[in-house]
């Protein structure tokens, strides 16, 4: 009879328990042969398997694998069904390689475009990141392999990432940096989860009970085991106590011995260690059982075809004044080394060993396109060759269309280092400007893991962003450029005009010791919208070779109760001549006028749906809304809160292309806590429906105090109103004398009673 987890834990020695809480080597957990406990292999895999080759002594010597679009590109699909398919494909390869857990997805928020690991992350928006992450996790685990979302939490920079202290206020943390993980945990139910290197408000993530126990397990119901990022452990005993189960890759027994000593001294309760061991064993045995039951089913050609399909759906047509799609009769020149040597993945732990990548130039030749190619500049460095530039400019001038394949060399962005600026290599910017000056039909194809400044954007006809689209990048670019596929991607992040306009420009990456998130909840489009800043291309933006119209947007009910649901419907029609995809985006705007500590953001994404339509075809898109969709996080309540009143539901093609707005009234008896004393401003009391009637009554009875406190008629009406708004309760006595003072003595108890009812 197979022993239970509890029986296995009971049968282990203290030393064996401690040993199971750290890795055997770089990629494997420890086995306990006498009890039939196997080792489990884990592997990087956010966009393709990076499993160590069997028999290899170098842990970076990985098997050949298919490289799918990196997180930056996959997110541009705006389609969780695609991330689910990618996850399933990665898992099938993992299972064939003996891997039990795939280390991914990486879902940290893109706080700054300079973060060196942004190519691996999904979005600046937590709703989008969470939905895509849940899809990937579901896909991986549907194939009997565990997923491991990372890096929990607030790992938003590479600068001194192993020690930096991310200092974030409660509302910002709960509203921006935790929700994607919450969605991933609740909807994806991952087998494991990886903590980050950094400290959060002074406490290392690897020993942070607020993150690992209070939030992850107690609030979100996470049932798997937690592991450290590689080398992230600071105090191993504190980590076990806080909820960190597995240390990777281990410390060759050093920390195991510390755990044993802590238990024997009474510093660490052995029952806490037992829970950690039990959680690890549950997943290790589950992975072994799944591997035994399921045959390997990895199909490399089918996986490559999927990589091409995903790349097509993830590319974003940022701009098109008519140069695209290309026509067979045109004289076309390809310019730039990225045409022949595309950059399609990032550097670091997620790097996939693939030999299946096809360049756009090779794809064009396979399709028998008639074109000319000029290298002009290298793909791996910033190097200018004037003779090569002249050749490229001349070729562009002699052509009908010039297509420049540009992007960031790997040395410009990689795990381990943040970018220092947002520019392309100077040689590329210079050449693009020179080509655009002689060729109005200039197209720029970008290969980068994050936004770049585009000073030439207004001078070129079209810009196609491939991000880092995996090994299918060339075949996808070929199909998109020549009109055999219709661009369907949308920007998962705002592309600013220049770096100085970004939300954390003055604070990123901090002083090397602390990183202060002073921009608060104003991350990405929340920042640009609140300040009405121009952007190069907004969040959610993406063009198509066809068009779409929205009509008949309506709610099934105009009022939403606190525990209810409202359904928003809109009809979308393909008004063009080609099959294409529209991503209908739902933004919610708080129009209640209720003061919000930390500020009210203009709008937040609360839904999106991608629909493919034939020419003339239409469909109805629906969104179900609850009170949580209207809410912001309240530090006073330590919970989510939506004020009663009017909200706007905005349906758009992007955050700055709203096609329909529908009002919604929200009803709730919940109110934010309010403490009243002699110094509470009248404006606060008049804005609260519980206290406003009492205050108005007293003001009417003490008109002299109100007039004197409001400026005694010596100022303009608006200034007088602001003076009255700011006047504290005690001002009634200051300006109204004994009668007003007596009224205030009576008013205070009545106000407190009203707030308690």
TrEMBL record:
Molecular function, one GO term: hydrolase activity, hydrolyzing O-glycosyl compounds
GO terms for biological process, alphabetical: carbohydrate metabolic process
Transmembrane portions of the chain: none
Keywords: Hydrolase
All residue ranges annotated as the Fibronectin type III-like domain in the record: 582-655
Keyword Hydrolase among record annotations: yes
Family: Belongs to the glycosyl hydrolase 3 family.
Protein name from the UniProt record: Glycoside hydrolase family 3 C-terminal domain-containing protein
Organism this protein belongs to: Candidatus Gemmiger excrementavium
């Amino acid at each position: 009879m197979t022993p239970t987890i509890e029986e296995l834990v009971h049968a282990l020695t203290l030393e064996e328990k401690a040993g199971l809480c750290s890795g055997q080597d770089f990629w494997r957990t420890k086995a306990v042969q006498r009890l039939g406990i196997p080792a489990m292999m884990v592997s990087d895999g956010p966009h393709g398997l990076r499993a160590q080759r069997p028999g290899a002594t170098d842990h970076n010597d990985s098997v050949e694998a298919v490289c799918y679009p990196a997180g930056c590109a996959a997110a541009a699909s705006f389609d969780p069904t695609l991330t689910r398919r990618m996850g399933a494909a990665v898992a099938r390869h993992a299972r064939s390689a003996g891997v039990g857990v795939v280390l991914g997805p990486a879902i940290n928020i893109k706080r700054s475009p300079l973060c060196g690991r942004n190519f691996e992350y999904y979005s600046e928006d937590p709703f989008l990141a969470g939905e895509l992450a849940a899809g990937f996790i579901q896909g991986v685990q549907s194939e009997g392999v565990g997923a491991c979302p990372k890096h929990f939490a607030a790992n938003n920079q590479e600068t001194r990432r192993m020690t930096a202290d991310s200092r974030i206020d409660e509302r910002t943390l709960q509203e921006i940096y935790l929700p994607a993980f919450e969605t991933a945990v609740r909807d994806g139910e991952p087998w494991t989860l990886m903590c980050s290197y950094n400290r959060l408000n002074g406490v290392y993530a690897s020993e942070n009970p607020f993150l690992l126990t209070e939030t992850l397990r107690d609030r979100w119901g996470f049932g798997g085991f937690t592991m450290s990022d590689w080398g992230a452990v600071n105090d191993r005993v504190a980590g076990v106590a806080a909820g960190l189960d597995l240390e990777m890759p281990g410390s060759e027994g050093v920390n195991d011995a510390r755990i044993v000593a802590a238990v024997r001294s009474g510093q660490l309760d052995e029952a806490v260690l037992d829970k950690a061991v039990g959680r690890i064993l549950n997943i290790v045995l589950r992975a072994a059982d799944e591997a035994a039951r399921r045959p390997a089913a990895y199909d490399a050609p089918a996986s490559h075809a999927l990589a091409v399909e995903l790349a097509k759906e993830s590319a974003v047509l940022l701009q098109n004044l008519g140069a695209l799609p290309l026509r067979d009769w045109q004289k076309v020149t390809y310019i730039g080394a990225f045409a022949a040597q595309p950059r399609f993945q990032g550097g670091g732990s997620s790097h996939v060993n693939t030999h299946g990548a096809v360049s756009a130039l090779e794809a064009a030749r396979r399709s028998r396109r008639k074109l000319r190619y000029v290298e002009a500049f290298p793909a791996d460095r910033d190097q200018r060759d004037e003779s090569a530039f002249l050749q490229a400019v001349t070729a562009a001038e002699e052509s009908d269309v010039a297509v420049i394949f540009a992007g960031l060399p790997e040395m410009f962005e990689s795990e381990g280092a943040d970018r220092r600026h947002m520019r392309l290599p100077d040689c590329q910017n210079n050449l693009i400007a020179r080509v655009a000056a002689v060729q109005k039909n200039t197209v720029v194809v970008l290969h980068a893991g994050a936004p770049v400044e585009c000073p030439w954007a207004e001078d070129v006809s079209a810009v196609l962003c491939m991000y880092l689209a995996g090994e299918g990048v060339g075949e996808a670019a070929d199909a998109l450029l020549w009109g055999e596929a219709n661009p369907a991607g949308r920007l998962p992040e705002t592309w600013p005009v220049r770096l100085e306009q970004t939300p954390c420009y003055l604070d990123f990456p901090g002083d090397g010791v602390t990183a202060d998130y002073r921009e608060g909840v104003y991350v990405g489009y929340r920042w640009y919208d609140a300040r009405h800043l121009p952007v190069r291309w907004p969040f959610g933006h993406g063009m198509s070779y066809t068009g779409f119209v929205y009509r008949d947007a309506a709610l099934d009910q105009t009022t939403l109760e606190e525990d209810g649901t409202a359904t928003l419907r809109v009809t979308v029609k393909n008004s063009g001549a080609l099959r294409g995809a529209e991503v209908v985006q739902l933004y919610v705007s708080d129009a209640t006028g209720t003061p919000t500590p930390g500020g009210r953001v203009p709008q937040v994404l609360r839904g999106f749906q991608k629909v493919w339509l034939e020419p003339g075809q239409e469909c109805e898109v629906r969104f179900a809304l609850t009170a949580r969709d209207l809410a912001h996080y309240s530090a006073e309540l330590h919970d989510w809160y939506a004020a009663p009143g009017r909200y706007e539901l905005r349906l758009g093609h992007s955050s700055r292309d709203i096609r329909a707005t529908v009002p919604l009234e929200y009803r709730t008896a919940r109110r934010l806590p309010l403490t009243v004393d002699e110094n509470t401003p009248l404006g606060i009391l008049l804005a609260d429906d519980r206290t406003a009637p009492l205050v108005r009554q007293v003001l009417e009875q003490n008109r002299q105090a109100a007039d004197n406190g409001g400026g005694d008629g010596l100022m303009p009406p608006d200034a007088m109103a602001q003076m009255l708004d700011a006047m504290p309760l005690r001002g009634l006595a200051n300006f109204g004398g004994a009668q007003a003072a007596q009224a205030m003595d009576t008013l205070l108890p009545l106000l407190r009673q009203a707030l308690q009812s």
